[in-house]
Amino acid sequence: MRFNKVLNVVDCHAEGESGQVITGGVGYIPGETMFDKRVYLETHKDDIRKMLLFEPRGAPWHNANIILPSNHPEADMGYVILESTEYPAMSGSNTMCVATVLLETGILPMSEPLTHLVLESPAGLIRVRCECKNGKVTQVRFINQPAFVYHRDKPVEVAGIGTVRVDIVYGGMTFVMVEAKDLGFAIDPSEAREICETGEKIKRAAAEQLAVKHPINPDIPGITNYSLTGPLRREGGQLISKNAVVVSPGRCDRSPCGTGTSARLALLHARGEMQVGETLIHESIISNRFYGTIEQVSQVGPYPAVIPAVAGQAWITGLYQMGMEPTDPYQQGFTLTDVWQRSC
Ligand SMILES: O=C(O)[C@H]1NCC[C@@H]1O
After folding, report:
1. For residue 224, how far is its CA from the centre of ligand 1 (angstroms)?
2. Is the shortest distance between the CB of 92 and ligand 1 below 6 Å?
């Protein structure tokens, strides 16, 4: 064996959404903050993302996270998130995978019944509370960076669909949000392909027609995610709603989406439909759940914001070493539009 690169991989998923955690093999990544390291990886080491996420090693539904030491005095560890078409500033399902792997593989010490961590994501510090029992992390609850609404109830012209009413909301990633009833969807798993096809079209149209710039970090990516939102209902005093998130290049998030849940809380709060201290049970297209709570209100530049807390669970599924042989023709991996929908 003569690999020119070997990565230590812990396979993990949060409510069905893949989040590989790379615990070694990447080497030193320069940068003061995790956002700087994210930029360095994107501009100098994108071959690592392609090796992990593109074929023949990856698949459209894979995400990965590189664990890196943080320079922030409060942080226990940092991580950079890699997805099929971008390096997001933040990701909820990936944060749950990172916290679970750090504790369950012994990289950081676990104390039962609760372990508190401070992780530096590219979006900033993320405070995490892990419920732990018999060596297993049974819930990861993180406090996200502030979520806020850029645009409310804006018409967007979408080729082949017509005028669609959208909201544009930041929750760590930037979402175009559409009510399922406006497009006639029930958010049933049988609709997944059609939801992705319309979602990608709406995402592209919204990104062309509505400007966004994060007031604190203008390099945070613009509209790259789509959330199709189901009706909000109260059952026994409990707020509950379904959503389907379409992750680029066009597949459903298997989890309820942590950044999408954060964005949903900001939108519901802006609409007066959810108050500080309330919790939303947010369901995915396959009906698993995250729990989103509005911790407090905040302000981001000109935008009123909320501080979201999101809780869910992750499970490790394997540990292995991924290698790259120097004669392998797919050093940069490849994508094919049969399952990737568009080339990345
Ligand atoms: O939970 C989330 O925020 C995400 N899941 C995959 C895509 C998003 O990063």
Report:
1. 11
2. yes
| Cα–Cα distance for residue pair 210/207, rounded to 1 Å | 6
Range of the domain at 252: 147-311
- 147 CB-near residues (< 8 Å, 6+ apart): 169, 170, 171, 172, 262, 263, 265, 266, 305, 306, 307, 308
Q: What is the pTM of this model?
A: 0.97
Same domain, 173 and 247: yes
pLDDT values of the chain reduced to their tens digit, one per residue, 344 residues: 799 999 999 999 999 999 999 999 999 999 999 999 999 999 999 999 999 999 999 999 999 999 999 999 999 999 999 999 999 999 999 999 999 999 999 999 999 999 999 999 999 999 999 999 999 999 999 999 999 999 999 999 999 999 999 999 999 999 999 999 999 999 999 999 999 999 999 999 999 999 999 999 999 999 999 999 999 999 888 999 999 999 999 999 999 999 999 999 999 999 999 999 999 999 999 999 999 999 999 999 999 999 999 999 999 999 999 999 999 999 999 999 999 987 66
C-beta neighbour count of 102 within 10 angstroms: 26
Q: Within this chain, do residues 326 and 228 fall inside the same structural domain, yes or no?
A: no
**218 alpha carbon – ligand 1 mean position (Å):** 20
Does ligand 1 lie within 6 Å of residue 314's CB atom? no
Same domain, 153 and 245: yes
CATH number of domain containing 285: 3.10.310.10
